[in-house]
Amino acid sequence: MDSILQSIEDWFRDLLVSGIMDNISNTFQSVNDQVGAIATEVGTSPADFQPAVYTMISTLSENVIMPIAGIILTFIACYELIQLVISHNNLAHFETWIFWKWIFKTFVAVMLITNTMNITMAVFDVAQHVVTESGGIISDSTAIDDSTLADMEDTLEDMDIGPLLSIYLQSFVVQFLIYILAALIFVIVYARMIEIYLMVSLAPIPFATFGNKEQSMIGQNYLRSLFALGFQGFLIMVCVGIYAVLISTIAFTTDIIGSLWGVMGYTILLAFTLFKTGAVAKGILHAH
Asked: Which among 64, 79, 172, 202 is placed 20 to 30 Å from 132, CA to CA?
């Protein structure tokens, strides 16, 4: 009878150990895949991220928004000419050189609005270069090697049924929560790219305001917002690098439960900091 009970206990222990190892492997695989996807996606330019979406946005910008920007540019150019003419003591002192000044400013404004897409994409090309270079420096991975998993399995095999059952249930909960956080991280990264597409679609309108000193604040703030979105990718890479370093400091073999919940806590921290990267980038560049 004792041998039968021992066999059942050993079978149940092996079943729990196998289940725990599957949960742990799936958890860390999900985390590592999602973190790796972040590094790849934030380093992709808007034109390469979703070429079909970029083509649609570019077409809408050039065919729908550009005519409106042209009307705004015409109004601003006329307003600027009036301001130049009456600025010298209400026509009491009049100089013809102001017309050359107006022609030059209008020419620059027209060139800016004509090359709107090229300028906006140049901003993200610069940001992409920075993200790519940072990716070469931030090389830490959140993956766990096979030797660590083998040591964890040996530790589990020496435990009793009660602690194993507790670890199994907690590992299942952590795995489920990690999947939710992975989906949340996916949403954060894709939401940034959608925001970029939305900003690019209306680019001609703020670019049309550069012909006047007063109205050009709209265009300047728009450019700062573009740079903030671009360099948000760099801040995301910094968050990923910090997360990878924190994960590497966890001792997975000595305290398995503490390690699992430690990974859970660091992943929550990663999601929170990813949410904050947009506000931090806008705050640094003073973009509203």
From this structure: 202
Torsion, Cα of 267, 270, 275, 279 (10° steps): 160
Stretch 220-248: mean pLDDT, rounded?
A: 85
Encoded tokens for 88:
């010298």
Distance separating alpha carbons of residues 275 and 185, to the nearest angstrom: 9
Residues 206-211, mean pLDDT to the nearest whole number: 86
- pLDDT(244) > 80: no
Q: Are 240 and 36 in contact (CB under 8 A)?
A: no
- DSSP 8-state symbol, 255: -
Which of the two residues, 281 and 252, has the higher pLDDT score?
Answer: 281
Q: What is the pLDDT of residues 54-63, one digit of tens each?
A: 899 989 988 9
Query: Within 10 Å of residue 63's Cβ, how many Cβ atoms?
Result: 9
Q: Rounded distance, CA 162 to CA 178, Å? A: 24
d(CA 119, CA 220): 13
The model's confidence at residue 197, banded by pLDDT at 50, 70 and 90, is very high
Instruction: Give the global pTM.
Output: 0.79
What CA–CA distance (Å, rounded) separates 224 from 233? 15
Say how far apart CA 49 and CA 44 lie, in whole Å: 6
* Residue 158 neighbours by CB distance under 10 Å: 7
Would you say 69 and 205 are in contact if contact means Cβ atoms under 8 Å apart?
yes
Q: Report the alpha-carbon distance of residue 200 to residue 198 in Å, rounded.
A: 5
Closest CA to 253 of 158, 149, 160, 166: 149
Specify the range with the lowest mean pLDDT, choosing from 125-134, 193-202, 243-252. 243-252
The answer to whether 235 and 152 are in contact (CB under 8 A) is: no
List of residues 6+ apart from 158 with CB closer than 8 A: none
> For residues 230 and 196, what is the distance between their CA atoms, to the nearest angstrom?
8
How wide is the angle at C-alpha 20 spanned by C-alphas 16 and 22, nearest 5°? 120
